[in-house]
Amino acid sequence: MFRKRAKVITPTQYWLLVVAGLCMALAVFVVQIISPPAPHKSSILSRVDSVWYDTRFQLWPPHRDSSVPIVIVDLDEATQQREGRWPWDRSKVANLVVALQSYGAALIGFDVVFSEPGTNPVNSLLSSNVLPPSLAKNIEVLIEDFDGDANLAEVLGDSTVLGYFLHADGGNSGSLPEPFLELDSSQLIKGIISLPDYTANLDILADKALANGFIVTVPDADGIVRRMPLVMRHGKGIYSSLSLEMARIALRAPWLRLDIDSVNEESIITGIRLGRTVRIPVDNTGSMLIPYKGGSNSYTTISATGVLRGDAPQELLSSLNGAIVLIGTSALGLSDLRTIPLQTSYPGVEVHANVIDTILYAAILNSSKDNHLSNTPYALTKLIPYKSQLRTPFYQQPDWAHGFNAILLLFSGLLLSVMLPGKSPLGMLTRSFLWLFIMITANILMWNWWHFSLPIALQLALILLLSIFNIVSGYFISSKQRKSIQDLFGEYVPAEHVAHMLENPRDVTFNGEQREMTVLFADIRNFTSMSERLSATELKSVLNRYLSAITEVIFKHNGTIDKYVGDLVMAFWNAPLPDQYHASNAVAAALEMQVRMKELRIEFEAEGLPQFHIGIGINTGNMNVGDMGSKYRRAYTVMGDAVNLASRLEGLTDFYKAPILVSDITSQSASDYWYMTIDMVRVKGRKNPLNIYQPLERKVEGVAAPNWLSMYEGAVNHYQNGQFDLALEQFKELIHRYGDNSVYTMYLKRLKEIHTLKPTQNWSAVYSHEAK
């Protein structure tokens, strides 16, 4: 029979959990809107996003092979040992520039700052006052020849870009270049990094250089450099970085321009344009995510001393021809090592190299012809487009990322709030991990296909929060339900049933429902007279032993105890757990209960206690079952006309002197037993008559019914069909062959009365019982 499966939680509990989940999702949504995790904020969420960013770089690094000729000239430890510790005499720096120009370097950038005047040996000698006045006068004419700053300024020419610092350490030195954008007092660009102080190059050098750009790197809160500020604010001016200036010059871009959008009536930067050649996506601070080509030495690197002395490998010196050269250091003592997503101790000069490389490669991809850039003044004719699928080299967190993430949080919250409640812990984890897998996969695909760096920390936090909340809530609801099951069924069903129900609460329903079941009533015959002969203590002992014995038998055959009413026991089958063989199990239990009673009578006789018999009535039919009662007391029980009939049958056992009586429906449902037809009866409260039977024993396959039973059933059949003479003859034969019993005697008595009264044609075999 179809049965609606019980839910682990009630509809009310389900919707309460859904509402609670949506409230949590709304709270996370508000966090995303008001204060989303940001790289400059030191928090667990921002740290998770940073780790996820690094993981994607490590597992799916950028594939950029544009062949942009970028060479690093390294002021490394070997150079320090051969040429002396940095800072050098400016004349030696000038010699390095001259050497690079002689090897054909197209553009030279300094990742160092010349903010203080160099030392002139002639001035040092004259200031010592050890020379005679005449000699000192002759040496004064050599001052200009030994002026290193002047010598360096003279060779800078139109191929060198100098770096400078913007900072907040107090004090200014050197001379800042003109900003590429001057803001008026009414202009405010939200988010752009503003620093009040600077350390710039000497005027003589700054004026002679082709351009100047700041060389500031700003690590995230965890100290890792993932982005490079391309523009910064000082005072009312917007200044460009060394990387941006070198890319602008290399591309011969006539101007720089900021793309500014208005968000909530505030201006923010979304991109930087280098002429009409390329647009660089940046965040609202003006910083660009750096798609590192690889670890250190991803670019051709030459020791500075090898360039100065010309003894570097020839293939390295040849690589300088037409190249963009960056002069910086990897020496530990010069404190220009950074931590990046791919490694620690990464030379800062290579950070600039990656930025320049990315911008120039983007220009290549934007070209309509391979030689689009061949007419630049810096001979960047070696630029070869990457022949695989052309994608933008820029990685970015688009300006719509926060709004998109907020909408995604609401959707995830709604989805999980509806999907998780009421499921098993494994089911909740499976659904949560599946949705998490979808989110991570989508995040990775957007990273690989469009180079979008979308945050994931709040998504992870929301999924984790809702999973834990629903698992914990489910645990408490399940614990409460387990307690309810234990309290309700612990004393009335077999222990293995309780264990099964606790492990499978979906198989249990507390709601009232109608189903086909079998119910059993067992009662002690003449209990009143027996109890009068026993003390209260003895009566308690006898009843406890009796009830324990038959309860054990009922449990053995998967029955459920409904109640004990004095000496009466009521039990049923096929609830709360389904039982396909409920009728057979009830009959088996009844037969074994009578066997157990024989054993008890022997024990009681030995102890001098009264012996007694029990009558058992069984019926099968549709019954109402569920947790019923009042607000003060409730019980899991069965009700209905079929239950009343079983009670009537139990009452008839004393009349027929039969230990067990079952209805015709029960005998048909439990057809694996032999039955003895007792009578056709009409009981009080029912109009329709029925045959009642006494179960005998389980059938054995291949074994026919006993002879006496076949003869007896024939006699009863003759009686019910009004064939009284045949019935009388067969009942006498039964007594002759097999001895007398109460049923034979009952039928012989009826047949004699019929013979005396001579019934009319309206005679009925139905025997009506008016008493309960």
Present the secondary structure layout.
Layout lengths: L10 H24 L9 H16 L10 E5 L2 H7 L6 H13 L4 E4 L10 H7 L5 H7 L8 H9 L3 E8 L13 E2 L14 E3 L3 H6 L2 E4 L12 E3 L1 E4 L2 E4 L1 H9 L5 E8 L2 E9 L3 E4 L5 E3 L10 E4 H6 L4 H5 L5 E5 L8 E4 L2 E5 H19 L34 H19 L5 H26 L6 H33 L5 H9 L9 E12 L2 H6 L3 H21 L3 E6 L2 E6 L8 H25 L7 E16 L4 E6 L1 H16 L3 E4 H6 L3 E11 L6 E9 L8 H14 L3 H15 L3 H16 L9 E3 L3
Parallel strand pairs: 1-14, 1-15, 2-3, 2-15, 3-6, 21-23, 24-26
Antiparallel strand pairs: 3-5, 4-9, 7-13, 8-9, 10-11, 11-12, 16-17, 18-20, 18-21, 19-20, 21-22, 23-25, 24-25
Description:
This protein is α/β, with parallel strands linked by helices. 43% of the residues lie in helices and 20% in strands. It contains 24 helices and 26 strands. Strands 18, 19, 20, 21, 22, 23, 24, 25 and 26 form a 9-stranded mixed β-sheet that branches. Strands 1, 2, 3, 5, 6, 14 and 15 form a 7-stranded mixed β-sheet that branches. A 3-stranded antiparallel β-sheet has the order 4-9-8. A hairpin with a 6-residue loop joins strand 24 and strand 25. Helix 14 packs antiparallel against helix 15. The chain is rod-shaped, with a radius of gyration of 50 Å. Residues 1-7 and 368-390 have low confidence and may be disordered.
